[in-house]
Write the structure tokens for this entry.
Amino acid sequence: MTPANLSPTTHDLEASWDALTAEELRRRGSLKWTVEPGVIGAWVAEMDLGTAPVVTEALQQAVTDGTLGYLPPQLAQQVATVTADFQASRYDWQVSAQDVNLLPDVLSGLRAILERHSRPGTDVIVPTPAYMPFLTIPAQYGRRCVQVPALKRAGADGSPRWSLDLEGIERAMREGAGVLVLCNPWNPVGRVLNAAELDAVASLSTRYGVTVFADEIHGPLVLDPALRHVPYASRPEADPALTFTATAVSKGWNVAGLKCAQLIASGGARTRWEASPLSRHLEMEASILGARAAVAALSPDGVAWLEVLRGYLWGNVQLLARDLSQVPGAELTRPEGTYLAWLDLSGTPAAASPARFLLERARVSVNDGATFGRGFESFARLNLAAPRTLALETASKIAQALA
């Protein structure tokens, strides 16, 4: 039983987050705050807001007990069980714990699928803008990355809304691509793909025999309260023989450094995975601390903390959108999920090199759009998982620099 003091109130959590300062975050020494000293860190996808107290307690207990060695099979099985239970309770996706394998991280799953579960030389479809490693990893395995730019339209509130170019994806499949990387929620544009979009992808996958690697690491971080995450593999048309899902608690609970993700596959995909000793061995590369953190994160106290976090991040989104909407030439995509905002600066003085401009003029470190795919050179990715005071300061500094 988790001690009651590991369930702080919403007010206590938000007050503790609000109290964080840039000086304290620099002292802690995270990657986000140390690569560019003296500036506001708003780039790499890690949060400033710590993790759930129940996760902290689990890690402290591991240190006290001295359980810092190799991952025991019973703990790996416990992670598989709580992962399956979470998928069922959260998303109504019935997953067998036997269909869950541990990984050190999501990208190791993608690497395994490209190297061991796709045809040599096959093309890999990546909708763009895309998480940067999705664009570079295929070439490391002799595969060509086929970028399919997203379609941009105006959403109901007038802000940009990005969607998959299904015709472009089908064209790439028809021309022989063998793997599609599907990021949902979509880093960096923050889209939460709906059932109709997923069904369309599943239909194309089945028609052309294309494997889908579904990266759902941001699934717990659907911020818009009107939306919910729909796992791709839960859709009736998704062929189990062609579907691999990767997930983790690393983003939602801010424990990426602990190295424990999960790969979910059933049917033919499960058979293919189990047939490869190298794929199966990835489970042994997961961390014992990461496994303990995953079990704690998916407990009732861990999920309760997540709910408070989602509300706090959604508040940051609204405030940033309000402040940056006043900047001529700048256009912010409000994330429906993830804590990452996509900022179009093509109509501003920052258009030629957004990251360098904002670093030099605003003293804010962001990710440059050019690294997310061709045609996005005038964009930037902005991390909103920060104390509210710093999120507001970030918006103010960017607005002043662009003005």
